[in-house]
Amino acid sequence: MAKENLSIPRGTRDFGPQQMMVRNHIFSTIRSVFERFGFAPLETPAMENLSVLTGKYGDEGDQLIYKILNSGDFLSDVKAEDVEKGYKALTRKVSEKALRYDLTVPLARFVVMNRNTLTFPFKRYQMQPVWRADRPSFGRYREFYQCDADVVGTQSLICETEIMQMICEVMQRLEIEDFIIKINHRKILSGLADFCGAPGREADMSVSLDKLDKVEWLVVAQEMTQKGFSPEFVEKLASLRTGIISFTSGDYSVLKEKLSGNELAASGFSDLDQIVSMVSGFPEVLAKMRFDLSLARGLSYYTGPIFEVVPHGVKVGSISGGGRYDELTSVFGVNGIPGVGFSFGIDRVYDLLSELGKTASMPASSSKVLVVLFDENQIPFYLQLLSSLRKAGISCELYPEPAKLKKQFGYADAKQIPWVLVAGEDEIKEGTLTLKNLATGTQEKLNLDQVVEKLNA
Predict the structure, then answer these.
(1) What fold, for 17-66+101-355?
(2) How far apart are CA 19 and CA 24, in angstroms?
């Protein structure tokens, strides 16, 4: 029999115990911040009805949705004319469900379905995987986890202000210091499209602008030309693409003045002014904020402030982003439920910590101490010892087989278990245990209460 060639799909990854310890640390850090800001957990199904997802992410996003073939004979209703009509018509015939593309549209669906029982403003966080049929590359995966926090049911810009605080607190706890929070406003982009000579085409413009963190301006300009934007539009847009302006060292008054005749742009600048005013009481947050006219956030459902977290000096791109979407529930037939939220991409955060060299010291086990199986006749004692340690809140494990001490110590060292506990026949008679610190090599004889106190210190 030929040996099977085992592999996993491109754009997906396995995570071993040590990697999962890092990921769990990221999850718990983000979860603790979300909960301290009053957000409650939510989960939604991995799959949604295809009709729920399509039309919410723009044409490019819709093409990246993973469709699920109908069960059974999925071709039974397909006719030749369906094939001739193209993939969109064919898809409706063979697929009714899809894997979720993000967590925001499922949230909007959940809110609409449960609007009569929810308490508004509704603050929820969600930490689940999403899937996108994208071309895999460094930092870009087909399956990845998002950690979202959203507030639905209020237009208050206090929410945006707290989002800035939450981002900075998560980054501080993860010991990521060199980063910025890029900010823009979709209404400013609408005013920009109008000013440059293409009113109403801000969506097409934004999809192209959103690629500037990956490609040069020339590539974006060529794409806009292919979309039918005039050379004059592209040239005027290039002249206004002022780059990133720090809220602590500069302002956007020149651009604000140029677009002052546009009501949408003026409204967008007014929102940013209010956010900056509220954040100014937190200088450590304000210092990270940057206005960036090229920030567009390609998803079509954004309507207000948009933001993105970008670390410096690393290959990993943005690790978080979000914005306000005051009309998303309207696509499900319910108006007047505004929302704002953001998301951390766990896989990007993990890659960033790896690149910064902050994951190597993470243990491959949650165990704090290994109990050595020194004497097979004493297994009942060892099991009772484990139970006592666990009741005291200490994570521990027993080496399951009789083996030389060197092998058992090597096992603890390989899993980065910091302590080893040895109890031979004489020690058991004396009521003592030998506790050894593998990092320092020091060891001492202690009773059980002293061991517990030492390990819990």
Answers:
(1) BirA Bifunctional Protein; domain 2 (3.30.930)
(2) 9
